[in-house]
Batch of 4 targets.
Target 1
Amino acid sequence: MTKLPTTCPACAESLEVARLTCPGCAMQLEGRFELPALLRLSPDDASFVLDFVRCSGSLKDLGQLRKQSYPTLRARLDEIVARLTPAAADGTELKRKQVLDALAKGELNVKEATRKLKELGS
């Protein structure tokens, strides 16, 4: 089975699920369904959260697994928690981060990034 994409490959907007299918009876539900917050995390962030859960929430154990310091892991976890909080639920903060990431990668120029950030109200 193909991995579920969570962002549009053309514009990087968050995708919505439009159809659900039962593999047992082939019944289909169509509509606009929001992806759960954990599925909207980047693959790297999702891997971090999965490792954190596998370590029973112990940053010490996670540090041993990932060979990273406690402060590095704490900061990373705090960033992920901030993205999962209700204040980020409207997607504005995620979109802001995507614009800044695209700017850092050279996918957008400063003028385009500034325009997009202004549209988001940043």
Target 2
Amino acid sequence: MIKPDIYSTHPLPAIHNIPRHYTASAVVIAHNHILLVHHRRIGAWLPPGGHIEPDEMPHQAAQRETLEETGVEIEVVSVPLPSTGDSDAFFLPSPLCLHSVKAVEEGIEFYHIDFAFLCKPKYSAVELPVVAYSQDVISARWFALDKFKEVPLAKNVLEVVELATKTPCQ
């Protein structure tokens, strides 16, 4: 049996043979603004997020990391999913996309495979939620969607935000 070339339908580059770390991020959009953090180690702006802990699901990691890094409580925007009523087999909120960025930490190269979730502030308000950033980031703030490109962005941020603003769930 001939196996189909799974990479022929997507233009993947040559992939490095390096370890993978799984992360989750929150693309938080409200009132025509996006919430970004200035990451201490990366030195650029990106959506809040971080590594998925062993005891959490990807969307929970995005929510936890956003709260830790910005003080903003969020909820994931996803298509409605059926409930199975079964704690052993269930559906998870759909990410906006999965993307990968090569990283180097303490001299070790690896990919961050990121579940990027489209999100909104948990509590609907007329104004943007106040941001109270943590020591994990240099800064955190809301950017107008027509102005966020004016700051140095981490890899894939521009493309992920473009996907978010084009999604029908937005």
Target 3
Amino acid sequence: MCTSSISERGNKDAVENGDFLMPKYDSDGLITAVVTEVSTGDVLMVGYMNEEALKRTIDTGEAWYWSRSRQSFWKKGETSGQVQTVHEILTDCDQDALVLKVSVAGNGATCHVGYHSCFFRKIVKPDSGNVRLERVYAERVYDPDDVYGKS
């Protein structure tokens, strides 16, 4: 299915300064992918890719991930219609993390619980000292039951 060729890991200088993609996967064969919205820079989600998911993403221009819980590939939006079109993929200096800049089809949401972003809450520490979460986005974009069915 995939036609992209990803280089083997090279020496430190080649990895840090070279022109070839030489990703460093963790012990489970995965690399972290931070997903941002291309137009706003909002962080939408964090996913994981193995080499095949990365190749599928490069080849198709749509985001593919490796589901750690299901131990299988998933194309973001395959069920929900919230397909992520990839505009740019960045890697850090060590090539052990990725940033995907995407636009999202459908209702523009990314989070499977209905919010625009999976990062819809922030950590707050009131004077009482009891740390809690506060919503950043007050409203859901969609009802997950309408998209995924009743849990």
Target 4
Amino acid sequence: MDTIEDIKVQMHLEHNIRARRGRLGLSLEALAKKSGVSRAMLSEVERGNKSPTIHLLCLIAAGLSCTVSELLGEEQPRRVHVLRADERPTVRDEDGVERQVLSISLMHHGLEAVWYVIPPGQSAGPFPPEALGIVEHITVINGKLSLDYGDECVPLETGDSVTYRIDETVFYRNTGRITCRLFLLIDKSHLKRRNEND
């Protein structure tokens, strides 16, 4: 059963998708072409009839030229911004994979900080390649993870870190017997600087 916080996040998500699509002047058909998500599914998500998976939300965000964190919640940056553990905007898949936003204020600097929870035997992805030189950094907090990067598999264990460009399709797979928790930092700061200089 959804908690009140789950419902709040979902309502915020529906509003942000509609609002951003409107600001960009995109019809549902246009967003479907840009994102690869069907018009019918987009309509269901915007009306709150469907909760998107993490993968689906990544596709929608890409179609709207923004981050998943931006869709989950936008706030103005403050000098000190505290986001309590039980207040993190969270997307949960049916297989138990969770993606939680760790900082909303960092988005204004072109950074996206994410906490992933992946149960044993489960995976997150695929995440399509980006052509803009976006860099990701992962640190495994506990458990075992296989980073499937194109045709390469990179095994990671507790405490291991990896940094890579998003120019290949990526999967995160929990290959261990316990829940894998990882910290993901997505660096798009060079895109922000480029936009400011244009």
